[in-house]
Here is the input.
Amino acid sequence: MSPKQILNKMEELFPDAQSELINWGTPFQFLVCILLSAQTTDKGVNSVTKSLFKKYPDSKSFAMAKIEEVERFIKSVNYYRTKAKHIIKAAQIIEQEFSGVVPSTVEDLIKLPGVGYKTANVYLNDLYKKNEGIAVDTHVARVAKRLGLTKHTDPNKIAKDLEKLYLKEDWWKINRYFVLYGRYICRAKMKKSDCVFKGICTYCTGL
Ligand code: SF4
Here is the structure.
């Protein structure tokens, strides 16, 4: 099965695939959701963002926010202290250097604290299908490795391997479908499965 056929199968499995982050209505709010989602479930992020965005709807209000107050809204989220600091600082940079508009290139996005290659590409691909790069998180890394698409463990090297295997126009799909496949089917601790890739993946024994 070719890399493209693997992706096609995943698209068939999740025909209505969307980001599972909700409660956001602007690009800046979406970026905040992604920053909060590191090492945290989307459900955990969704549980705090409604009240957070009611109090701080935009980069201007976050830029002026007191860190302890932002922490209070997000303290059920892992690493909330670091995340509060990053979000406020990112908002200040967006206000001062980007006229209140979230930048739209990886090069500019990674100037924001807490935003690396993965976060920048999740943001750009989910919102704009920008295809500047492939975002590799723990699910993408695990699934790509098990399916023989990479031998690496370093997310940046996995991203480069996947970027060689897939057409640029499909890059935005990799994170979206591999994450869902990893989250709901090819889970971290599983050992048994009769998944659609049983023919090419020997990691699991049959059910
Ligand atoms: S056989 Fe198991 S490890 Fe391999 S792709 Fe399927 S669910 Fe994942």
